[in-house]
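User: structure tokens for this one?
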Amino acid sequence: MLVRYLLYLAIVLPLATINAQTPTQNLEKYWAYRQRLIGTADKAGFVDIGLGQGQSIPALERFPHTDCATDWYMQHHSCSPHEGTGRLHWSDATLYLGHYMAILALEYANLYRANQSTEAVAQELWYALEAFERLDSLAEVTLGLEGKKDGFFLRDDIAATFYLKTDSTADRRFGKGEFTFDCTSSAYTCGEPKVDDGVFISQDQVTGLLVGFMTINQLIADHRYQPNLPTFGEKVSLNMHRIASYMMRYNWQLKGPEGTDIPNKWGGNAIGLSYPIGKIANHITQQKYGDDYLGNGAKLLGKPIYKLLHASLAWQSEINRGLAMSTFSLLENTPATLLARKAIKEQLIIYPLLHAVLFRKPLSHKIEQHLFEDLLHTAPPEGPCFNSPDCMAPDGWKSYDRWIHPDFVNGNPHGIHSESPGLDYMLLYNLYHYYYYTDLPAYHAPENVLDYSLPAWQY
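Assistant:
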């Protein structure tokens, strides 16, 4: 473990020295990333904020110069190739939707504590929560059944014609001139949605959502988007109840609404994470719906399997290590020192910080403030990317998301060259500012950053 830690420092610290930035510059970079996420009048973003199909779900990657008609992915994944340039890609969309919710909840909490306006971010967060409920409602519809909100959800609902939207928000979202994106790819868009084909609920998608749900629950549960709406906490609690109840229904072996198994390769066997998911569900809901979500094997079978997962972490796949660390950080009684030791080894030091913020606990002495600053300093001002045109990202910021794919921080082995939204930087920065706020400049948004005009939802 010591060798890996020293190697980590040997890579990060020299880069931090070369690219050292001030706390003020890191705050400015956060808002630059946020503007890049939603887009501007002449540059495309990664998310189209709104209540319609495909909206308020951030894309994982974009390929600015790909030819839509000849793009390899479009041709080999039953997408809809056509003329045009630039592809937006959604993958594991509900997992990243959960992290997006966490970013917005932390932004809200930071702004609120600094006595700044929270109006815009409150609306954006509510729309993200509505996007999840839309995916929950539409899941059965895609299979020819009546739609309902029951915890069985789609990963995304990006239509093949999503790029053709012409409203003002989409004009900004997809950009103009050289910044256009004329084709889309996603689990929903490419091919016919099937229960056994990685389009619906899975244990990894749920763990991503839990990051968002827990952040909302712990930091802004009593706040509202509009006075006549439920609180953010009430919204999250009901969705958590639906998801956990659905997972328990089949003893944590996930199935479609007509009983078709979701294969294990798509995260269908959730018994290994049933214990932390059940614990988190009990915490968020306070069991006000009368359910104990540690039933149907979660305690008797899931708990020992989860302990074994942590005991064998060094031999687990990248995704299993990430799932273990993420869920570990969301359990209130997780020992801070143990979490820190595992996080350093796995290059996932965001999770001790997440745990400290959510449960208002001190960080382990093993995790020092400069470790977070070293990462924040080296993040590229133009955003994370890997070998895409004009990409300036240094090693450490070439992953789609370093907290989900830490093994790809210096570039992925699949030869996928793209631009990423930087959700990993934004989540880290907001947690860092929330925890260390007394050492940092006041949290505030520059004038006109997030200057989008969305119609208020009428009730």
